[in-house]
Every structure is written in C-alpha cells, then in structure tokens.
Design brief:
This protein has 805 residues and is mainly β. The protein folds into four domains: 273 residues, no CATH class; 124 residues, Immunoglobulin-like, CATH 2.60.40; 214 residues, Glucose Permease (Domain IIA) (Distorted Sandwich); 74 residues, Immunoglobulin-like (Sandwich), CATH 2.60.40.
Length: 805
C-alpha cells in the first residue's frame, strides 16, 4: 500500500500526445506581449483579490455588452419561426448553435469536491419582416431543473428595428462581473426556452431549443516547468467585451511570505519586467497551421501606457499568432516583440501541439503584461462565432482554497472544462497532468530520442514498486532504470519502464557479496545488468540494487573506487573495448566512492566529474555539440556540495537533460515525451533545507555528427580565453578579469544575468534599447568561475567568466 504522501507523489504518467521530434529553440526574452486584435471587441481589466495590485487584461474601447449589429454573419442559420397572432413576424439567428442545439460552456468546479457549472451566452440577431418598425426590449430564458421551473429575464433598450433590417443583443457582461450571463448548476437541463418580447405585442417570439455542451478541447498554452516553485497561473471565465466572453486573460502569481503577488519580489508593478508573467513561454494548444503572425509590434512602454499598434495587422493583439486548430482559429495575443518562434513565422507553416510560440508580454491593446487567448469557429481570421475554450488537462482551484503551497489542496481536474470564474473571482491554474506536489527531493533525468510506450513512477515504497513492475510486465514493458532515495529514515523507490519483452529481474537491495554472487549467476543465464543503484538503507548500511534484462554482450562491474582509481579503470577498460553505460557516485562514511557497469562497444566516449550543476551542464553542452550523448548521470550530496558524474558515448540523436523539483520535472517529462524523447536515466536525491528552489535548467540540441576520439575529462578549468558565440557574435574581455568585464555584441544587447558556479543568480540587468557594449563590475566578487547568460537580438548565449584577484 502506498502511503498517503505517495498517493500524491507516486503516480504513473503515460503521455497520450503523438510525438514529434524536438528542435532547439533559442528564446529571445526582451519585450512582453499583451493582447487582442483591433478588430475584436475589448473590455476593461478588473482588480485582483489583492487590492494593491492590478490584474492586467485587454483595454476597453467601447461598450459592447449590448452592442447593435445590423447584419448577422454569413455563417448564421436564419430561422423563420411561426409566430403567434399577437407577436411580430421576424427572422432570427443564434450564434452559439450547432445541429439545432444551443451550446453551453462546461466550467470546472472551484475545488475537486464541488460540482461545476455551465455558462450560457447567446448573441441573437432579429430581422424585422413587417412593414412597420418594431422595438425589441426583452428576452426571457426558461428551463426546468430537477422538476423546478426557473426563469431569467433580461430587459434592454435597442434602437427600433426598421423593416427588413437586423438588430442584435447578447446576454453578456462587463469584465469580471456576472452581468447577464446565465449560470446553470448540474444537472444541466435538456432544453432552454428562449422568448423574445417586443413593445406593443402581447405574445413573444418563442423558441424551444435543446442544450448541448461544446466538446472541442485543447491543451493548456503553458507548462508547469516554466514556473518558479512558488508560482501558479491565474485566470478564469470572467472576460468581458461582448462576444469575447469565452476569452481568457491569463497571468502568473507567486506566494511570498504568505501573500500572493503578480509582481516579482522588491518590485512595484510599474515596469513590464516586474510582472511574473512577463517572459513566460507560450505553447501551441494543438496541432495546426499558422494563419497570421506579427513579431515587430512595439512593446508597450509600461503597464497603463500603449505604444502605437495601429499600423500592424490586427494590431490590437500586439505581437501574436493566429493558428488554425481544426475547425477553430486560436489567437495567442500580446506577446513580446521579437520573441515569436522564427521556425513558425510563415503563413501555412505546420504547428505541432506543444511547439513554443513566443513569450508572454505587453503589446497591442493591453493594460499590462498578460496572455490573451480565444478561439473562433472559422477558417478566415475573426470571421466566425466565438466558441468556449475548454482544456483537456491541468487543474484549477479557487484562490481562497489555496493559501499555502499544500500538496493536499483540493484541485479540480480539467477534462473538457473551461476555467472557473465569477464576479471578480478567478482561479489558480496548474498546467500539468498531475496535481502539484511540494516536496524537497531533487529530480534529474537524461532524455534520448524514442517513441515507444513508457512510464515513470516516483516516491513509492518497495512493495508498491514491485507490484507496479508486475503490472507493467503484464502490459509489455520492462523496467530500465531504478533510483532509491533515503528520505529521513524512509526509503523511496522510483523507476522508469520502456516497451520490451524477454527476461527481466529487479534486485531491490542487498549486500555487495550477495549482489555480485547473483550478478554472476544471472550473467550465466542470459541476463545483463542494465542499471546499478547504490544506496544507504535505514540502518546506515550500503546496499546494492540492480535492474537486469536479456543480453549476451561482454560486461564488467566495478565498485568501491575513489575517483582517481575509477578514472584509471575507465580508461583501462575503454582501451579493451568496453564502454561505461552506468555510473554510481555514493558515500561510504566520509568517502566518496564510484561504481560502474561496463558493456562491450566501440566509438567515442567520455567521462566528466563536476562539483555543481552549472559546471556539469556547461561541459554537457560542449560535448553534445561535439557529437557525444550523455548515457548516464549520477549525483551525490546536496546543495553546493553535490557531485555530478556523467558517462558519454558517440551519438547523433535528439536529447535533453533536466533537473528540478518534482512539479517541474514531471511537467517537463510529459512535455518532451510528447515530442519524441524518452527518459533513459532517472535520479532522485533528498535535498536539505527548503528543497530545490532555483528553477532548474533545460538543455537540448539538434543532431550532431559522430566522433571517434577517446577523451578523459576532469574538472580543471582548461580554457581561460573568451568564448566566441557562433550566432550571437559576442565578445567578452578581459577573461580572466579582476575589476571589470566588457561585453561587445554585433547586435543589440537586450539583457544579461551573472551566475555563480552553482547556478545562483548574482545580478540581472535589462539594457536600454540600442546598446551594443556594456561593462560589468566584478571587483566585489571572490576569485572563481562564473557564468554569464547574455541575450541579444540574435538569441541567447552562455559564457564562462573567471575572476582572479
């Protein structure tokens, strides 16, 4: 039985999206996109639940809640009802109608223990078929629910409808208000009676229409791995502006000292970059085709001030994508200038679900940084009826129900649901297929190209994992990697499975003598050790676990070596035609020891030891570009004392490497799994203190050529010269430096950040426009290795800088 903690933590994740190969995306992070086309009907943003901050949205240009439209759209089905003698003769068009049924939006509940609602918004056009003017002044919706008759009346004033002309009305709302929207509790009634009343006529024009849910669904346009550990997305079904009641204005909030805030710490919201949502990546919600894009609309100078967006196509949406997703076109609006994915900036370009689109910003008709999205049923931009935007993954919860980062919070799952929202109240949103779990363990993984069935489980006890392994075997999968983590006095087991057949065996932990005896026996029976795991049990004793599969290749197993001895053995066996395929780093008393699994093989190979994540990933990136692929990674220790050791072999497939907390790691795993990558090595380690809070790092690249040379790498700083970027054309000097570092770029410098060797940010600066040279004071820093992340108009580049005193 899995403990209550593991009911949250130990989950199985099998992605269902069709895979597509990962591409390297260089994200430019300069400006920030806002929202909404000039041709759209816009509305005013409302105040957030925190009175000192403003929730930004689309800027209001006209009162559209009772908008008159003289001619219905061509897609509308004209109906000629048979009117009573005391009712006028008219023709009528309903916008939210398909197959004769009126559509409603299914809205998620505020919590998992509550029931959701449905929201009904109808725009109705009426044509006067009489010879005299008529005055349409009232609509009544009637329905029966649980045997109880209910009614909602709408009184309004419109201009008279002259003969053979049209007039329109909608039960809309202003921003973040209830307005005239019809909210229905479950069970949803089968029919809705719509009665239209006209001044001077005793009888209404009456329609009895079946009610039906809209069913087209989408993935969420953002990812949990892009959030800081204390952040969530925020939004709801509260958009105003007439026909845009189905749209969303979305932002990000973070919990700091018990208070939720839209802004980053020590900022006041007066600048775009103060907002947490500024620069968050936005992703395609489904497969599709690009219909339109704008990437050069100026960013609004600051919240509350608009740049001139009028000259740009549909400039109210600022920098944006219109993408045809099946029968709908989606607008992704208010993105940062220059941040759109260059690979997709072509009309007719095919888009895959999860493709990076751009960075959330503040451009166009927008009051401040946010993401605006909506969908319309159409094939020509802004021509068809709006439709509810329903999500097929993720979670939502009322803001009042999530006042702390609790793993037991009662989130409600989004399955063909719109976001909940009501009268100034919006929801927190978790964009992942698993509820958030706030633990302190650190998770890292090595990903390689693959499209087979696979699964991951984390945080289970041994009995639960054994049962899960049996279940997966019965479904055609075999365990390929095992991680055992001591958390306090408890052992937690995590594992990876891939599609496979044949013999398979897992040793969950024993002494070295017993393990090697079993290793010898199984080797003679056609098994080969695929993964070795060394850990300390609850009593402080070293234990050895392993995953075996079918095989007959030459192999070696070593353990209990110092780093120097292990390096020597690695080089010796490499010269004999063996390659290190699994490495273990572990503590025995105060000593750091190494173990490894070797397999007969050929081709280039490498080994790298690092004292921190930044050092390891820098070398990983370098080797990857030289045609090596990381095969296995292991770590020992926590915080600044963590040792990272990785074994590399020649390869040219797609790949990625990631480390973060559980929420981010699981989200990243799901994201890259859908894009043609598979987890091949999985490590979990306990973290001390508050846990892993530095936001993690993502590294990925395109295919490279094979290499054949053998290299042995150590942790020495081998190159003190400035690194010249191939695309960015950036020069950094002097390097090493004592007092100041100069950066010169062939294109505009947008921003830069300086990090310590362990990845902690020391300083971050956003440069003014048209700066191509700047200086960084380092005289206050101690001697050591640092890293600069520099963004120019051409992309992002990482550089190593050494300070010598």
């Amino acid at each position: 039985m899995v403990s209550s903690r593991n009911h949250v933590h130990a989950k199985t994740y099998l992605p269902t999206q069709s895979p597509s190969f990962m591409k390297k995306i260089i994200l430019s992070s300069r400006a920030f996109f806002a929202l909404l086309s000039a041709l759209l009907l816009l509305g005013v943003s409302g105040l957030s639940a925190q009175t000192e901050e403003i929730h930004h949205g689309c800027v209001h240009h006209e009162n559209t809640s009772k908008l008159d439209i003289h001619t219905p759209p061509t897609w509308g089905a004209i109906e000629s009802p048979v009117s009573a003698d005391a009712a006028p003769t008219v023709e009528v068009v309903f916008d939210q109608q398909e197959g004769g049924a009126l559509l409603y939006e299914t809205v998620a509940a505020w919590t998992g223990s509550q029931a959701g609602k449905a929201q009904v918004y109808l725009r109705i056009w009426v044509k006067n078929k009489q010879n005299n003017n008529i005055n349409w002044n009232k609509a009544v919706f009637e329905y029966t629910q649980n045997g109880v008759f209910k009614t909602k009346t709408f009184n309004f004033t419109l201009d008279p409808i002259t003969p053979n002309n049209w007039r329109a009305w909608q039960n809309s709302r202003e921003y973040h208000e209830v307005g005239d929207v019809l909210y229905l509790d479950a069970p949803i009634p089968a029919n809705l009676t719509v009665k239209l009343y006209f001044a001077g006529y005793a009888d209404p024009v009456t329609f009895i229409k079946p009610l039906a849910p809209y069913t087209k669904t989408f993935d969420m346009p953002f990812r949990a791995f892009d959030l800081a550990p204390n952040e969530v997305w925020q939004g709801g079904s509260t958009h105003g502006g007439g026909s845009q009641v189905f749209a969303y204005d979305l932002s990000v909030q973070g919990l700091v000292n018990g208070t939720w805030s839209y802004n980053l710490p020590n900022t006041d919201g007066t600048e775009n970059a103060h907002s947490r949502v500024w620069g968050k990546p936005v992703y395609a919600m489904a497969d599709g085709v690009v219909k339109e894009f704008v990437n050069n609309c100026p960013n609004n100078p600051k919240p509350g001030q608009e740049a001139n967006w009028a000259p740009y196509p549909n400039g109210g949406g600022g920098n944006h994508f219109y993408i045809q997703h099946g029968e709908n076109i989606a607008l992704y609006a208010h993105l940062q200038k220059g941040s759109l994915n260059a690979n997709l900036m072509q009309v007719g370009k095919v888009v895959k679900a999860g493709d990076f689109l751009g960075l959330a910003g503040n451009s166009g008709s927008s009051s401040g940084p946010h993401l605006h999205i909506h969908v319309r049923k159409e094939t020509s931009i802004e021509s068809g009826p709006f439709r509810p935007l329903l999500f097929n993954n993720g979670y939502a919860i009322s803001k009042s129900s999530f006042t702390s980062l609790s793993s037991s919070a009662d989130w409600t799952k989004m399955t063909a649901h719109g976001l909940p929202g009501y009268a100034g109240t919006r929801a927190f949103i978790w964009p992942s297929n698993a509820k958030p779990f706030y633990g302190t363990n650190v998770y890292n993984g090595v990903f390689r190209a693959g499209t087979d069935a696979h699964a991951m489980w984390a945080g289970a006890n041994q009995a639960a994992l054994q049962q899960k392994d049996t279940d997966y075997k019965n479904n055609g999968m075999r365990m390929t990697d095992l991680s055992v983590t001591k958390v306090g006095s408890t052992l937690e087991y995590s594992a990876v499975w891939r599609a496979g057949s044949g013999v398979s065996k897992v040793q969950y932990g024993t002494t070295w003598a017993t393990f090697t005896a079993e290793w010898n026996t199984l080797s003679g029976q056609g098994y080969r050790l695929l993964d070795l795991e060394v850990f300390t049990d609850a009593n402080g004793n070293l234990r050895y676990a392993g995953v075996y599969g079918a095989g007959n290749w030459g192999h070696h197993l070593v353990a209990g070596m110092t780093q120097a001895a292990f390096n020597t053995k690695w080089a010796e066996l490499g010269g004999q035609g063996f390659r290190l395929v699994d490495v273990e780093v572990y503590k025995s008393g105060n000593n750091t020891l190494y173990a490894g699994v070797f397999k007969s093989g050929a081709g280039g190979y490498a080994l790298w030891h690092a004292g921190n994540w930044a050092n390891f990933t820098s070398k990983w990136d370098e080797l990857s570009k030289q045609g090596y692929r990381l095969v296995d990674l292991d770590t020992d220790g926590t915080g600044n004392n963590t040792i990272y050791t990785g074994t590399f072999m020649a390869g040219n497939d797609n790949y990625a490497l990631y480390e973060n907390n559980w929420n981010a790691f699981q989200s990243y795993w799901s994201h890259v799994s859908a894009r043609g990558l598979r987890l091949v090595d999985f490590n979990v380690r306990a973290a001390s203190g508050a846990g892993f809070n530095d936001g993690g790092a993502e590294f990925e690249d395109e295919n490279r050529e094979d290499v054949t040379e053998m290299v042995l790498l150590d942790t020495e700083v081998s190159d003190r010269n400035s690194e010249q970027a191939t695309d960015v054309q950036l020069n950094i000097y002097p390097n090493p430096a004592t007092d100041v570092v100069i950066m010169e770029s062939a294109s505009d410098l947008l921003s830069w950040s300086l990090h310590s060797a362990n990845g902690a940010m020391i300083q971050r600066i956003t440069e003014p426009e048209s700066t191509r040279k700047t200086s960084i004071q380092v005289n206050h820093l101690p001697s050591g290795v640092y890293y600069l992340m520099v963004q120019t108009a051409d992309g992002i580049e990482k550089h190593k800088v050494e300070v010598l005193k």
